[in-house]
Write a structure and sequence with these properties.
mainly beta, five-stranded mixed beta sheet, 55% strand
Length: 732
Amino acid sequence: MNVNFFSRKGTKTLSSTFLMSLIFSLFSFFSFSQVKDTTKVNQLDVVLVSAVRVTTKTPVSFSNLDKKDIAPRNLGQDIPVLMNYMPSVVTTSDAGNGFGYTGIRVRGSDATRVNVTINGIPYNDSESHGTYWVNMPDFASSLQSLQLQRGVGTSTNGSGAFGASLNMLTDSYSKKSSGEISNSFGSFNSHKHTVKFSTGLMNNHFEIAGRLSTLKSDGYVDRASSDLKSYFLQGTYVGKTTLIKALVFGGKERTYQSWNGIDAVTMASNRKYNSVGEIFDNSGNFEGFYKNQVDNYNQDHAQLHWNEKVSDKWNTNLAFHYTKGNGYYEEYVDDWKYTNLYYADDAQYSFLGLNPIVVDGQTISSTDYTRRKWLDNDFYGATFSANYQDEVLNVILGGGANRYEGAHFTELLWLQYPSDSQIGVPMNYNMATKNDVNVFAKINYQLCTNVNFFADAQLRNVHYKANSPETGLVNDNFNFFNPKAGLTYTVDNANAVYFSYARANREPNRTDYEGGSVKPESLNDFELGWRFVAPNTQINLNGFYMLYKDQLVLTGELDDVGNPIRTNVGKSYRLGLEAEAKIQLSKKWLISPNFTLSDNKNIDFVLEDGTDLVDLGNTTIAFSPKFIAANSVVFSPIANLQLNLLSKFVGSQYMNNIDDAQGKLKDYFVNDFNATYTIFPKSVFQSVTISVLANNFANRSYVSNGADYGGGYVYYYPQAGANFLAGLTLKF
């Protein structure tokens, strides 16, 4: 859940019911009206992501993960953790073990700057730009593949990509009926239970498939528990030239908050301590924890896709989507703690918009209280594209129109000195809306035998309105032009080199507006790379220079609910080299190393110290390690047995933009071990797979994330030591 926002309680039952009825009515209409040849056809699922995906002919740095790559480690940890060993990626977990809230950074850019799409539909929250994977637990079990494009990439729908683009393709249809039961258990009372099914193509045309999942974990950090449930259901119609998919998926999460982190002194004595929910008496004596300090949120998605192969050279894609989100986070606000430790006014009656209370002749200006901050949002729209492709030319024309409506409010549950009218009455109600419209054109053209030309141009209009105590009045309209172009030169059958230039612009998010005056940011991205492909070896080298203007960089601070605070920094850049390889040493041995070496700088950074402006010159951008490396060593000693040693190194990184060593995360090197063994019985089950995952088996103490509030107030998010997960998957 985007816990920075709060909204009306309840859901828009009528609108969601109507939309669901419309989707399934359209699905039924197309299913029974399309009477076409039922001969076998090429799967058209790739059309769902053709507008956002790239190939080796595109001058973009990218990596793919498919279902086979994901399955061995898919034992309950979230999608960012499963992506941990991709180039330039750094991941973290609030709970410390990959369950619940997880985060990802690519090339030093946080998740708000990673453009995420599902089947070409935007997934980033429209206001925060964040991706909250906790709202879709076990979504990896419904993925066919994902592609991570580093840099600007080819993002066309949703917020602009300033670090990477991640596009995900959900499960394809299956021609044969199937079922799957998957269970896993592990450390910290973690477990996942998944059931999947597919009817296969009935009458060579229709398939219904689905998944139900439940996940629970106590978390490594104290009380960082998660109780997660999710579903996925799709109906598919397949014709000779037609693919129609209706999908509904979503999840419900209830997690105990663990976004505060801990200071160095506490970490030295108790790495698992969680300060969220602390209760003190009026003298500062600790009394315990608030049991219901939880984040509670539901999110449901509906998508309807219609792909039509008009001819051998033309195909079209039309998609409608609707996302409903509703929920709250609840917290206990302790007067003594906020007044004496945080020095904040959160416990003041004035902060709540209330008048002080007079008790026995004494004026009480602050109080203990509990509250819920609600968010009730709707996100809906349509995307479309038309694709022409022949032997030398590939053109895609398309666009999208989306609208977001988010209502927010606070509900007081209890005050130490209340009046009856204050309890349960919606407070600070406000509404935010955002319209996002774009059109684009892409071309891949083979100029000659060895040279391929790529160009991409997007026009995007964003209109955002909000009015709340946090943001003030916002009514901004942005027009962005985002061009991209590049060349790929094929040297021979094994070697190719490429160069590309891309420009991206993006609007601030809600938290940025809460910080005061803020500007949109822009990026000029230059990429130069080499690809080598041989029967047993693949190598990708990619150099990048990303030059920003008014980049919204992380300050190191978090707001009161764990959202990162950012600020414009004028000019800045990221300069680096990425290397990725896959080498099949023999039939039994496969290694897949990668590393990123980069320099990430603010240019002539100016710090406002409260009384004056201080020019600090060139400083390092926060949360941007100079060196990141990963490796996978796969050994298959016998048929159907796979042993995998996974290694990850992340260099030291500042949590501030002033090169202050007090706010610096140490480097860390962590190793995981993954083993899978598959049995193919002669009856009942198609396959039986046993999986074991030993995370951080060397039991290293490390920290992957933190916060720096200045003045020595630094907090850390310790990750779990040695822990394990084991699973059993039955397919039939």
